[in-house]
Design brief:
Layout lengths: L2 E5 L1 H14 L4 E2 L10 H11 L3 E4 L2 H7 L6 E4 L16 E5 L2 H5 L5 E6 L13 H7 L4 E7 L11 H14 L6 E5 L3 H10 L4 E6 L1 H5 L5 E13 L4 E2 L4 E2 L4 E7 L17 H14 L5 E6 L2 E5 L7 E7 L10 E4 L10 E4 L1
Parallel strand pairs: 1-18, 2-9, 3-4, 4-5, 5-6, 6-7, 7-8, 8-9
Antiparallel strand pairs: 1-10, 10-13, 10-17, 11-12, 13-16, 14-15, 15-16
């Protein structure tokens, strides 16, 4: 009995091809838990797409994937002096976000990140004159700009990239390749038209692997079903049941990522009101699980265990049977499945 990730493989790969057609020269991204699919699987899919490069999050991920992918590996985390040295092949490209970082990577292949409106990391306009001498001792693969997902000030993503292209050109720095992120296909086309001598390469992860929500589905196997009456005590904390119904034990617990949730940025009154309501229910031990049965998400009977969750299904609903599978709405980037099945 397991928490299973089902993949409609033909549909999933068709979506990959549609993204590749929209973004010629795309750089697939595989970082973290491999967007829920695992590093080896995404390395295989990237090879199948015919891509010459794969972006990873860290040097440790690059070390793990060097035997799974034969093309170039782009490390997205910027190099810092004093970091733990990790043995990597020459086909690894390091991101750099400071002039000092460039000087620290003599003879290496580097991609230089510029400071965008994200204000996360990157060289500044004031740094550009210092880069001339610094890049003489490295193999420059290009510059990169990492853009925000939302632009609440109404600014234009393309204009931000153009402004940086103009700065780099004014500083007489090479503009043969520009790595970009979070641009639409028409925005990328505008840039390519304005700068025909530069190759723009879009780094894409979420849109590529998770853009078609109906291509994948998590399901947890039902392990046990116990009928209970209102007031019966159960579980680790011996709480009382709120009514007649069933305690349903389903595969999928905290070790899988069930019950773990990353903070969300809420916009608008309705999402905020729902957030307040969820928080209020949690104070009285009412937490909605990601598992659905009979058309509804079911409540946790108690906090999820390490490998299973216990749900409460009310008595007016037909009980699931041992061996049934409950669909689970889980976040791919925080979920660890027991098995993956193609169909």
């Amino acid at each position: 009995m397991a928490l299973t990730l089902y993949v409609d493989t033909a549909r999933w790969r068709a979506h990959q091809q549609s993204v590749l057609q929209q973004f010629p020269g795309m750089v697939p991204v595989c970082k973290g838990n491999g967007y829920g699919f695992g590093h080896d699987r995404l390395a295989e899919e990237t090879t199948r797409m015919g891509s010459d490069i794969l972006a990873v999050g860290t040097t440790y991920e690059a070390a793990r994937m060097k035997d799974s992918f034969s093309g170039d590996l782009l490390v997205l985390t910027p190099f810092r002096r004093g970091e733990e040295p990790v043995p990597l092949p020459d086909r690894v490209i390091r991101s750099v976000s400071s002039v000092d970082g460039v000087y620290g990577l003599v003879n290496a292949r580097v991609m230089i990140e510029v400071m965008s409106s994200m204000k996360r990391h990157g060289v500044t306009e004031e740094d550009l004159p210092k880069l001339h001498a610094a890049i003489e001792n490295v193999r420059l693969e290009g510059f990169a700009i990492h853009l925000p997902l939302d632009r609440t000030d109404g600014s234009d993503a393309v204009e931000e990239v153009i402004a940086w292209m103009d700065r780099l050109r004014a500083a007489r720095l090479p503009l043969h390749t520009m790595f970009v992120s979070h641009l639409k296909s028409d925005e990328l086309a505008r840039l390519q038209q304005q700068f025909p001598q530069t190759r723009f390469r879009a780094r894409i992860g979420t849109r590529l692997w998770l853009g078609d929500h109906d291509a994948t589905e998590y399901r947890g196997s039902v392990l046990d079903v116990t009928r209970v009456a209102k007031g019966d005590r159960f579980g680790y904390r011996q709480q009382k049941t709120a009514g007649d119904g069933y305690l349903v034990v389903v595969a999928g617990g905290t070790s899988h990522g069930v019950g773990l949730e990353a903070p969300k940025a809420l916009h608008g009154m309705m999402p905020r009101a729902k957030g307040v309501a969820r928080a209020g229910l949690a104070t009285v031990n009412r937490n909605l699980s990601p598992f659905t049965w009979a058309g509804k998400q079911r409540w946790f009977a108690e906090p999820p265990h390490m490998q299973v969750s216990i749900l409460f299904v009310p008595g007016d609903v037909p009980a699931p049977q041992v061996g049934d599978e409950l669909v689970a709405h889980l976040r791919h980037t925080t979920t660890q499945y027991d098995r993956i099945l193609d169909r």
